[in-house]
Amino acid sequence: MSYNNILSEVTNGIATITINRPKKLNALNKETIQELHQAFDAADKDPNTKLIILTGSGEKAFVAGADISEFADFNVGQGQELAAKGQELLFDFVANLGTPVIAAINGFALGGGLELAMAAHFRIASDNAKMGLPETSLGVIPGYGGTQRLPQLIGKGRAMELVMTAGMINAETALNYGLVNHVTTLDDLMPFAEKLAGKIMRNSSVAIRSAIKAINANYEVGVNGFDVEIKAFGACFGTEDFTEGTTAFLEKRKADFPGK
Ligand code: COA
């Protein structure tokens, strides 16, 4: 499929989705959000894709936020719809995807950009990256899940400060806060992401899909994550991957998971 604002390619089981509006620092306009939804959906349904890496094009930005030019004249109803639609189409969609998503943050990840990175299953960053939720400096608040996912990842006090100051933190601080798992040079970012992807892809994709669901259940209001885990754990015993994984261990060989 061809897109106007993103690039998507699959190599060796890894789908790399690149937001590609470098002149606008990869800001997320409506069309880009729609295209990202399609690309994530297609990658998740593609049997040849085992993992997704999300990054931005150019050396300056991952994503510098939602496209401010598109919503500057919105009213209350339109504002609410923008957040609701965006969360449903992209941010919650990515967070709940069964295929693992790694955000490779290659520069500014601001506003909707950081919210998108936080919707990914985990994040790595290059040492030039800068992250923040600057919405209060524009007279709004984060609307793509940022007020929920940032405190989940870095704690309430730090999230409060970052949102209230509309400030930015560098990659090193993001690493200290646990917002990103690893920091590399810009040149090493994608090779490092692919190396991590390789380690993940050796394991059962069926079990990983279940694990994502169980871990996410911890953050769902009214859902008992322990119960979700028990059911998901039990379901693994009926999979071909489980048979192969345990048999391979007992036969002292490497598992070759069918992904079923
Ligand atoms: N929405 C729309 N356009 C954006 C954008 C956004 N979130 N972020 C950057 N751009 C555009 C700029 O308007 C500019 O376009 P132009 O060349 O047509 O004027 C282009 O991207 C380059 O950005 P510029 O501001 O000139 O780069 P800079 O290096 O001076 O500053 C930033 C970089 C990231 C600090 C600055 O672009 C910025 O503050 N962006 C907005 C961040 C934000 O508030 N995001 C949250 C939105 S809810």
Question: Would you spell out the secondary-structure blueprint of this structure?
Answer:
Elements: E1 6-11, E2 14-19, H1 30-45, E3 51-56, E4 61-63, H2 68-71, H3 76-95, E5 101-105, E6 108-110, H4 112-119, E7 122-126, E8 130-132, H5 146-154, H6 156-165, E9 169-170, H7 171-177, E10 182-184, H8 186-201, H9 205-217, H10 225-236, H11 240-250
Helix pairs in contact: 1-3, 3-4, 4-5, 5-6, 9-10
Coenzyme A binds at residues 24-25, 27, 64-69, 108, 110-112, 134-135, 138.
What's this entry about, in short?
The chain is of the alpha/beta class and 260 residues long. It folds into two domains: 196 residues, 2-enoyl-CoA Hydratase, Chain A, domain 1, CATH 3.90.226; 46 residues.
Features:
binds coenzyme A; 260 residues; alpha/beta; 2-enoyl-CoA Hydratase, Chain A, domain 1
What does this structure look like?
Helix content is 48%, strand content 16%. It has two domains: 6-201, 2-enoyl-CoA Hydratase, Chain A, domain 1 (Alpha-Beta Complex); 205-250. Strand 2 (14-19), helix 1 (30-45) and strand 3 (51-56) form a beta-alpha-beta unit. The chain has helices spanning 30-45, 68-71, 76-95, 112-119, 146-154, 156-165, 171-177, 186-201, 205-217, 225-236, 240-250; strands at residues 6-11, 14-19, 51-56, 61-63, 101-105, 108-110, 122-126, 130-132, 169-170, 182-184. The strands form two sheets. Strands 1-2-3-5-7-10 form a six-stranded mixed β-sheet, sandwiched between helices. It is α/β, with parallel strands linked by helices. Coenzyme A is lined by residues 24-25, 27, 64-69, 108, 110-112, 134-135, 138. This is Enoyl-CoA hydratase.
